[in-house]
């Protein structure tokens, strides 16, 4: 693309400001800017801004038929059977882990990939390290290394891969890990003008975690899975500090269901909790967002009784299993777009870098859960919140939920419970922080009192 053709294109779409600083740019920046401009689908940007920001259509749920899709709670002996089945499939190399880590983590406000974040555990392990060690442990339990695919973004790709190599891939075989970036989409201001991240660069953001499906295909990851004989992919987010990566019980549950998609859910803590829940929408498996649900739907209980469970009470925690053939079939499906209002640094009309204190930019995103309606049905496994869900979304602070501090406390509480279940007397636990390495135990299994050791300060007990 030439400068003149870019000028004409931008004028047509009311985005001429993107060339405002052209005279100040060196040759390399000019070439980069023209290349960014040539890759933008301006009609889609304008359409999404119109239909999602300035003239949003009424929620589709207003006319859809919504019905409950409850989570299943297997009896302990059934769970044990699922675990056996799942471990056997892992031992045959039939399942891989897939981390969506392309997000910008704007609420946490941490500079760099969220996975490198240290939530302040006694060991100071990063989120990436916790996940890697759980995968290592699963490899030990099933007797075979588990492949791991990691989706990054243009913004955090180099920092992510650099962190893994700096830590020698946390002991995982390097040839079992593949990184690839997802696609990006322009960020706009309130009037629909595309932002500049600096004078010669368009502000682009990753296109949402649902961008993982085309990225899995375009990167060759799906082909790689096929070559390796991987039949299932375990999807999860970077910021759940308690995620049981490639949980064998969940895999066994999905295998038994005979369906191409499965999810984990936790029970909603209250009708008002602001989470998406599983439902059927016009007969198709789906997730309904809190904002789409009228209060009476949030409060509806089984048997119309105050003691009944919430009918829409299975909260989505973004832990999914998809069968590879299903992903191959639907990787390029046109998913609906969503919009989020975020704080995005950018350069203003005078060329000054602005770090906004409140949301200033519209980010258009695709969501993973929008693939569910493509499945004939899906199975939802209800799991214990305190054992499996510790989101790290916001900066720690007084009364702030879903923060590094709350995630840290959840992990330490769970590990204290494991120590008690392993038979540690209260006298050894008193006033101590208990942390169990995932290399020692994945989900509380195999612990004995003599596995726990006090550190020199006598305040930390680790196993
Ligand atoms: P969030 O929805 O919490 O978004 O991501 P975020 O961008 O990380 O954080 P905020 O909203 O700016 O504070 C949930 C999961 O989806 C991934 C994230 O990395 C996280 O694992 N994600 C999100 C992507 O992989 N790509 C995206 O474009 C967005």
Structure description:
With 463 residues, the protein is an alpha/beta fold. The protein folds into two domains: 60-164 and 207-393, Spore Coat Polysaccharide Biosynthesis Protein SpsA, Chain A (Alpha-Beta Complex); 403-463, no CATH class. 30% of the residues lie in helices and 19% in strands.
Brief synopsis:
The chain is 30% helix and 19% strand. It has 463 residues and is an alpha/beta fold. The chain folds into two domains: 60-164 and 207-393, Spore Coat Polysaccharide Biosynthesis Protein SpsA, Chain A; 403-463, no CATH class.
The level of helicity is 25-40%
| Ions, cofactors and other bound molecules | uridine 5'-triphosphate
Give the helix/strand class. alpha/beta
Supply the number of helical segments: 14
Rounded mean pLDDT score = 95
Number of domains: 2
Largest sheet: 7 strands, mixed
Order of strands, main sheet, comes to 4-3-2-9-13-10-18
User: What is the beta-strand fraction?
Assistant: 15-25%
């Amino acid at each position: 693309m030439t400068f003149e053709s870019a000028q004409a294109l931008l004028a047509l779409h009311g985005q001429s400001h993107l060339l405002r600083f052209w005279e100040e740019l060196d040759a390399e920046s000019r070439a980069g800017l023209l290349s960014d401009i040539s890759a933008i689908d301006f009609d889609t940007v304008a359409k999404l801004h119109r239909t999602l920001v300035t003239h949003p259509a009424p929620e589709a749920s207003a006319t859809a038929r919504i019905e409950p899709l409850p989570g299943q709670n297997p009896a302990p002996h059934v769970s044990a059977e699922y675990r056996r089945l799942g471990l056997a499939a892992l031992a045959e190399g039939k399942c891989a882990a897939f981390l969506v880590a392309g997000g910008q983590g704007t609420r946490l406000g941490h500079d760099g990939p969220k996975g490198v974040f240290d939530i302040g555990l006694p060991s100071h392990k990063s989120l990436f390290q916790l996940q890697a060690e759980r995968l290592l442990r699963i490899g030990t339990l099933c007797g075979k290394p588990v492949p791991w695919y990691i989706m990054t973004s243009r913004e955090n790709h180099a920092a992510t891969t650099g962190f893994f190599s700096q830590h020698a891939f946390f002991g995982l075989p390097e040839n079992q890990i593949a990184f690839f970036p997802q696609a990006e989409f322009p960020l706009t201001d309130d009037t629909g003008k595309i932002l500049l991240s600096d004078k010669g660069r368009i502000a682009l953001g990753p296109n949402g975690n649902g961008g993982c499906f085309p990225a899995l295909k375009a990167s060759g990851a799906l082909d790689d899975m096929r070559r390796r004989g991987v039949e299932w992919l375990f999807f999860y987010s970077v910021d759940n500090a308690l995620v049981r990566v490639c949980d064998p019980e969940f895999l066994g549950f999905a295998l038994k269901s005979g369906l191409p998609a499965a999810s984990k859910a936790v029970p909603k803590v209250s009708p008002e909790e602001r989470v998406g829940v599983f439902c059927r929408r016009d007969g198709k498996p789906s997730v309904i967002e809190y904002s789409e649900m009228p209060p009476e739907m949030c409060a509806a209980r089984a048997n119309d009784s105050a003691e009944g469970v919430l009918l829409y009470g299975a909260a989505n925690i973004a832990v999914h299993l998809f069968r590879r053939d299903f992903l191959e079939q639907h990787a390029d499906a046109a998913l609906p777009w969503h919009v989020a209002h975020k704080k995005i640094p950018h350069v203003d009309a005078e060329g000054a870098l602005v770090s906004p204190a409140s949301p200033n930019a519209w980010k258009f995103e695709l969501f993973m859960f929008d693939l569910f309606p493509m499945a004939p049905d899906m199975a939802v496994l209800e799991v214990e919140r305190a054992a499996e869900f510790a989101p790290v979304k916001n900066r720690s602070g007084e009364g702030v939920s879903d923060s590094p501090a709350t995630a840290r406390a959840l992990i330490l509480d769970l590990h204290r419970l494991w120590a008690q279940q392993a038979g540690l007397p209260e006298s050894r636990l008193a006033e101590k922080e208990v942390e169990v390495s995932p290399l020692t135990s994945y989900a509380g299994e195999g612990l004995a009192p003599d596995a726990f050791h006090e550190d020199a300060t006598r305040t930390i007990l680790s196993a």
